[in-house]
UniProtKB/TrEMBL annotation:
Gene Ontology CC: mitochondrion; nucleus
Gene Ontology MF, one: mRNA 3'-UTR binding
GO BP, sorted A to Z: regulation of mitochondrial translation
Entry-linked InterPro entries: LRP130 (IPR033490), TPR-like_helical_dom_sf (IPR011990)
Name of the protein in its database record: Uncharacterized protein
Species for this entry: Panagrolaimus davidi
Length: 515
């Protein structure tokens, strides 16, 4: 509870800090009053209770960070055994819930299966407790990483509607899960309406609820709303947790109030229950989303004090999140500038396996941000690179069905990104295998820098020679265009040792010209 003395009590925010006192004295906007929907019931805690609460929060925050850290490791393990895991039968909601808990990951098929089961047997919802229902709701959030936002949103809405109709055991865990899923799915939510709904359902908001509501305010830059929540927490003697402080500094950074960000981070730096680097990372994330300027992000990160013991491995996923936000906004040169803050496996020269980073690279490329995907590619782990290379090869194969110009553009992107050294040569080969007309792609190939390495291989000129001969034969004798084609043909022939077949082809053309 020592955190209250430093940051929660708005009117007693570290009296030596004029900026923190100014937060309470001069609010830039007025948040709607939330006290109407919050039950009064101030609990007076003893000093022992306060110590236990502080100790508990410290352990909880450490565990939360550790859970976040091992998720990618779990997913990596699950990917290796996915066949056996998904081979188990999922005939009822209980088994699906267990699978979701084990995987921390859901697919489109699983979400469809849940809705199908509920349509077939709606009473199954009444067999679930609040925790189990919350797991089903969370399945429609970031757990379904490869499912579209639209379908995830539809899933959560339908599931909630069915649970309400069946009067299922909807408690605070389910409400929190719905708020979090809607945040994950970019659904706009109103804090006052959420509290009204909780009040109507006779359900008390808990610490996690207030942290989620603070996050909603933070994404809108409504600092006054977060301060209102802080006051309510103090009145209710509810402990303030790490996410609440992150939302506060995020909101200040969102509004470009950098000095207030520094003041709050410094005032909380001596609190052992607070992970100070995460506060700076939250502010940097806000800067990335609002300013789309890598230098503004770096200004925040370089202020992380050495005493805070910034752990690259512990905060790797958060830094990757900042990188992806900047890349999605078209910022270039992001990875080299933020590479210092990434955790690297120096033996392999890459970051550890990250499902988030792998998915982000795929998403960037699919949505037309090829430069962003290729900037992220070099730091990915070996297995992610293999998957992406296979995907890039498939994209090259598909390019032969488009125009040669688009194929060349894609090849240039891959060559500059050092994914393939000779992508145009690959495209010519793929066009041949697909029985497509290769010359439009071949012509681009011989005009490119790739062909310089092959100039000594005379057989590679044969398609061009045959094409020139065909063009000459199709033109009327004596035209200037035909003369230009002859000149080009003779220049190429002087470089080549011609086969008998090609020599005969040229002889036929010359004979038709009367030479």
């Amino acid at each position: 509870m020592s955190g209250y003395r430093r940051c929660l009590s708005i009117r007693h925010f570290n009296t030596s800090s004029t900026l923190l006192n100014a937060v309470a004295a001069t609010r830039t906007s007025t948040a709607p009053s939330l006290s109407t929907f919050i039950r009064s019931g101030r609990r007076v805690l003893s000093e022992d209770d306060r110590r236990r609460t502080t100790s508990f929060n410290r352990r909880t925050n450490a565990v939360t960070e550790r859970v976040q850290q091992v998720r990618d490791e779990r997913r990596s393990l699950i990917e290796r055994h996915r066949g056996a895991i998904e081979g188990s039968e999922q005939k009822d909601l209980q088994s699906i819930i267990e699978m979701i808990e084990f995987n921390s990951y859901t697919t489109n098929a699983q979400l469809e299966n849940v809705l199908y089961m509920l349509n077939k047997n709606p009473s199954a919802l009444n067999t679930l407790n609040d925790r189990q229902l919350s797991i089903l709701i969370q399945a429609g959030g970031d757990a379904a990483q490869n499912v579209s936002f639209h379908y995830r949103k539809t899933y959560v809405e339908k599931l909630w509607q069915k649970a309400a109709e069946r009067k299922a055991d909807i408690g605070i865990l389910s409400y929190n899960a719905r708020i979090q899923a809607n945040i994950d799915n970019r659904v706009k939510q109103n804090v006052v309406e959420i509290l009204q709904e909780l009040s109507a359902a006779d359900i008390n908001a808990d610490e996690h609820t207030f942290c989620l509501l603070a996050k909603l305010y933070a994404y809108e830059g409504q600092t006054a709303g977060i301060l209102n929540i802080i006051e309510i927490l103090k009145e209710q003697n509810l402990p303030a947790t790490q996410p609440l402080f992150e939302s506060l500094v995020y909101s200040f950074a969102y509004n470009n109030e950098d000095e207030r960000v520094k003041t709050i981070c410094q005032s909380l730096s001596s609190n052992p229950a607070i992970n100070v680097p995460l506060l700076y990372i939250a502010a940097a994330t806000a800067k990335a989303r609002v300013t789309k300027d890598i230098d503004e992000v770096l200004k925040i990160l370089v202020d992380i004090p050495k005493s805070a013991n910034f752990d690259r491995k512990e905060h790797a996923s958060k830094i990757l999140g900042i990188i992806v936000v900047l890349l999605e906004n078209g910022v270039k040169g992001v990875v080299p500038k933020l590479q210092h803050y990434l955790y690297f496996d120096h033996a392999r020269g890459s970051i550890p396996y990250s499902h988030f980073a792998e998915k982000a690279a795929f998403k960037l490329f699919k949505y037309g941000n090829e430069a962003g995907a290729l900037e992220l590619f070099p730091v990915l782990d070996y297995h992610s690179k293999i998957k992406l290379r296979e995907f890039f090869v498939e994209q090259l194969k598909q390019s032969v069905f488009s125009s040669p110009e688009k194929a060349v553009e894609l090849a240039d992107i891959f060559r500059e990104g050092q994914i393939f050294t000779k992508p145009l040569a690959r495209i010519v080969q793929y066009a041949y295998f697909e029985n497509k007309r290769i010359f439009p792609f071949y012509q681009k190939f011989i005009e490119s820098s790739e062909f310089k390495e092959f100039e000594g291989r005379s057989h590679l000129y044969y398609p061009l020679i045959v094409n020139l001969c065909s063009q000459i034969s199709a033109l009327n004798p004596g035209t200037s265009e035909r003369q230009q084609l002859f000149t080009q043909l003779f220049d190429i022939v002087t470089k080549c040792q011609l086969s008998e077949l090609i020599s005969r082809k040229i002889a036929d053309v010359l004979e038709s010209e009367g030479l």
